[in-house]
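Input record (one chain):
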Amino acid sequence: MPIRLVLAEDSYIVREGVRLLIESEPELELVAVCEDLDSLMAAVEEHHPDVVLTDIRMPPSGTDEGIRAAQQLRETSPATGVVVLSQYADPTYALALFEEGSQRRAYLLKERVGDLEQLLAAVREVAGGGSVIDPKVVETLVSARASSKNARLDQLTPREREVLAEMAQGKNNAAIAAALFLTERAVEKHTNSIFGKLGLSEERNTNRRVRAVLLYLAEQP
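The corresponding structure, as predicted from the sequence alone:
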């Protein structure tokens, strides 16, 4: 079965270009095309797509409608994945997108749209319950704290690295405990230690997990 997709983009040129890419791919089925937040939410309610592919800025305010849509859909359509397309590598936007969890969410820069395989990979990952963060966003976040990154990660014990690796797969504490044959209490203890060593103790819990994962992913080859 093809992945059913709703596209939301207010720029006519970008919208038509992406629409043609989607329609050329038999793995995808475009069920609606929207130009603003209200029509996007209405299309999701009507068509129940597998994935929403949305610009980050659209009418009515032209600020963060894509992220707001993703947040609303956590409540109204939790099975629908969201791929946010943005021209901004500022990690603040990505952190806002993942604030309530990374499952079924992706943040890609618009420059990736020209590479159909990369776009398809993100859509597939999100449709399957996973998450994707544009590598340039990771680079931007990590470069801001490059001097301390390696020292902080090097402080982690082998077990803490295992827990962080599982966290990077989008698993909650219960799933991590099952995968590593630990108690949830032990996983909670390890995660708190990870946050402390990475200097994330004062962050909100959701942001701590996302930031820890971004730092871990940036170290991977």
